Amino acid sequence: MRNLSLRVPRGEIFGFLGPNGAGKSTSIKMLLGLVSPSGGEAFVLGAPSGDVEIRRKIGFLPEDFRFYQWLTATELLEFHGRLCGMDAEKLRERVPYLLDLVGLAPHQGKRLQGFSKGMLQRIGLAQALIHDPEVIFLDEPTSGLDPMGRRLVRDIIRAQRDRGATVFLNSHLLSEIEVTCDQVVFIRDGEIVTTRDLRSQRNENVRVTVRARKMTPQTIAGLSQWATCSQLDGESLTLTANSREELPEILGYLVQSGSAPFEFTPHRISLEDLFMEIVGEDRGL
Amino acid sequence: MNPVWVIASITFREAARKKILWTALVVGIGFVIVFGAGLYYQLTDLRNSNIAPFLRYQLLSATLMIGLYTVDLLAVVMTILTSLDTISGEIASGTIQAIATKPVARWQVLIGKWAGFVAMLAVYVGAMFSGTLAAGYWIAGVSLQNPISGGSLVYLECLVVLTATFLVGTWFSTLTNGVIVLGLHGLAFLGGWLEQMSGFAQGSGLVTLGVVSSLIMPTEAIWRRAAFLMQPPLAGALQSSPFANVSVPSGAMVGYAGFYMLLMLALAIYHFQRRDL
């Protein structure tokens, strides 16, 4: 890592992006005190990285989570809870809640050796949340998960943010990052390339392709309150909306005006396009 | 609950749940049965001979010492095999990351694991040692001197080996760890024999070589001290045996072994605290 300087605001979901070998996992490990930097310093919640006491407020899901195969899901969470100083009474309440949260309640008594990769990811996420941490580091939390699992993890991450926790997310799945994160940083070769605020990007102008059967010049003129129309080509109209937030109103207007729209496709520069643009197409994810 | 205790108890439970401890104990029981049967047949043969009762007792005691020496070897091998990958394996698999990022100091992780094995070895060595002694007493009516001191020294020997695997495990992979620790024990074994050879050639370089080997790895020296404390006079007089009293390590060697173990533990903690996980 070189010149990596980051400030992550509290209560945000922060995405960390970069190609393989960019230093994403190493950065997380440095912040958690697992790896010592050869120079420089890092602080988490105002304490130097690696501080033992501050870890009471930090949760971590390592990449490719693995643990003792002979433990059951319940025993694993109890063990991690006890390491965090939780007593038996607290664990009796917290462990079933988390197992239910990650969808593993039916497997609470099953040993980890019978778990699929996706199930291990889920139980790994549960152990990261066992002590209600203020900052949560998730290294590839959705790898190995099916679409339902991904949605579940996404909902959990958002719920954590909504309760005030900060989530530091490292993922290869750019579409996941795109819909989950508030802010992202791109790194390459151990250096920050750029930082993007995805919330503001959601409010940026967006180009839309509309295909409708009965589009009249009056209808197109009426769109000017939300968008700038560029061209009409038969049934197809391309327009640039002022804001992504206004897209439902535009669609509603087209329906009400009797245009019979049968396609409404917003185009914007996806995170993947941005990633390729910044990192370079010759580098893999 | 103290994190050291949490980690120690899961390490102990791991041995029980992975069936290492139970398998080792079943093998141990098998050993005690075979040993007891051998002792029984030796007793029958001796009764049918004209050997004087005193000599008969000495011969049976010597057999008991052989049984205990086998227990000692089994315990050392069992110690190495069970503890070999506890540090290096968990670092390699990344399992340690979920533990080391909890509010637990790294020294607590290492001491907790070490304490778990210390408890497990107490069960194993205690069961094997007392089982063999009980077989000797009930079958042949022989008992040894200072069995508690002897058993404690065999346990200390296992703890030295355990601590060596912990120290090497903080530096090297599981396989390399096994090669190094077994190699060190082999060196100690060789050193013990070289020292005994020196009994026949006073002042030879063999003594120096043997002592240096014992200082590098004092495990065999601890066994020879244990054997000296327990053995009957005849077994001790058997030159060139693991029980020979030709060159008996002093009590200071036991003190050195204890210091050596604590130093290795401190070095293991020092390196584990600083290394990347």
Average pLDDT of chain B works out at 88
Q: Separation of termini of chain B? A: 25 Å
What is the tally of beta strands of chain A?
A: 12
What would the principal axes of the Cα set say about the shape of chain B?
Answer: globular
- As for the number of domains of chain A, it is 2
Give the amount of beta strand of chain A, in percent.
15-25%
Largest sheet of chain B: none
Walk me through this protein's architecture.
The complex is a heterodimer of chains A (285) and B (277). With 285 residues, chain A is of the alpha/beta class. Chain A has 2 domains: 13-200, 3-Layer(aba) Sandwich (Rossmann fold); 205-267, Alpha-Beta Plaits (2-Layer Sandwich). Chain A contains 10 helices and 12 strands. Chain A has helices spanning 24-32, 73-83, 88-101, 117-129, 147-162, 174-180, 198-202, 217-222, 247-256, 271-279, and strands at 13-17, 43-44, 47-48, 58-61, 135-139, 166-170, 183-188, 191-197, 206-212, 227-233, 236-241, 261-267. In chain A, the strands form 3 sheets. Chain A has a 6-stranded mixed sheet with strand order 4-5-6-1-7-8, sandwiched between helices. In chain A, helix 2 crosses helix 3 (88-101). Chain A is elongated, with a radius of gyration of 23 Å. By secondary structure, chain B is mainly alpha-helical. Chain B has one domain (3-274). Chain B has 12 helices and no strands. The mean pLDDT of chain B is 88. The A-B interface holds A 29, 32-36, 52-53, 55-56, 58, 60, 62-68, 70, 79-80, 82-85, 87, 124, 127 and B 1, 3, 6-7, 10, 14, 17-18, 93-95, 97-105, 274, 276-277.
Summarize the structure.
The complex is a heterodimer of chains A (285) and B (277). Chain A contains 10 helices and 12 strands.
Describe the SSE topology:
The complex is a heterodimer of chains A (285) and B (277).
Chain A: E1 13-17, H1 24-32, E2 43-44, E3 47-48, E4 58-61, H2 73-83, H3 88-101, H4 117-129, E5 135-139, H5 147-162, E6 166-170, H6 174-180, E7 183-188, E8 191-197, H7 198-202, E9 206-212, H8 217-222, E10 227-233, E11 236-241, H9 247-256, E12 261-267, H10 271-279
Parallel strand pairs in A: 1-6, 1-7, 4-5, 5-6
Antiparallel strand pairs in A: 2-3, 7-8, 9-11, 9-12, 10-11
Chain B: H1 3-17, H2 20-48, H3 53-83, H4 88-93, H5 95-100, H6 106-140, H7 147-169, H8 174-197, H9 205-216, H10 219-230, H11 233-237, H12 251-274
Helix pairs in contact in B: 1-6, 2-3, 2-6, 3-6, 3-7, 6-7, 6-12, 7-8, 7-10, 7-12, 8-9, 8-10, 10-12
